[in-house]
Design goal:
By secondary structure, the chain is mostly helical. Helix content is 55%, strand content 6%. The protein is elongated and about 105 Å long.
Length: 320
Amino acid sequence: SPNFLLEEAKQNIDNTGKRLQEYFSMKLKSGTEWNSVVTNLCFLRGFYSHNDIVFPKRMKIPKRHISSVKKTDGKTEIYGYDEATSETVFHNGTLKHFFDNLSFRDQTIGLSVLSTGADAADILNLKIGFVKDARGNLSTVKRFPFHDNRLKDGIEFKTFFSVEATEYIRRYVQQERSNAKNDEYLFVKEDGTQLPTHALSMNFRAAAEKMGYVVDDESNPFRPKRFRSLFRTACGIANVESGYVMAMMGHASNISGTYLEKSDGLFLKEYLKVEPYVTVYGGIDKSQITVMNENYDELKQKYEAAEKEIENNRIKIIQL
């Protein structure tokens, strides 16, 4: 209990230091990243400090590591700052360039990850039923709500798809998954099977290479995992309350658990703050969607014409 831990520290601070060191080692062995464990340790040290427990200088907190991935990401800035205007600069043009090098399906997935802050695995795990309403029709909601548990660790989260991402999903279903059943995966490969996360990462890497980036699976500045990180950064820029951020992203915390009990309306109110910073095209009237629709309509007309021709030939064969 908290009281036990505080009493232990008062009687012998070395025992507390040993306890924290064992916790640190245990988290590292479990596969948690170094910097995340350091952050957790700082929170625990803060608990003692706020209760007037002073640690000796010899009990130092391990230093955070600057990962090579972070250094690479820094070379491709998405959120900058203009000193002259004291305003955040959203380099959505860079993201537009990247998304324009993806297939329509992968564009939709990328916008979904960026606008929700969810893991790519959780997006790829969605079924067709997710986009249907109570009557079984394609939902017309402005933003798809997303309330689930992370596949990675089972932590509950609650967030939204942006207006932009929601419209992309609707168009994707209409054009490529119109005949799919509710229990089928939303995003699939050409053979109809679920799209795995490694395949998505490869597609994102190929798009980055087209743009001239020298990348690998880890250093790609447009990898799916970075989009989740960009969502967190966007929340900070938009001054979204930290409790909501943790609840939206599925961070394990007693605080996020408390916020998950709040109404969807309050979540939407906070989400509206961050939405402009995760909207890539500035709206849903993207030219490529129009082109896709025109191609779809053209193919549909050719298909219907071919069906009529087959039917006419069938009648002629019967007559003969």
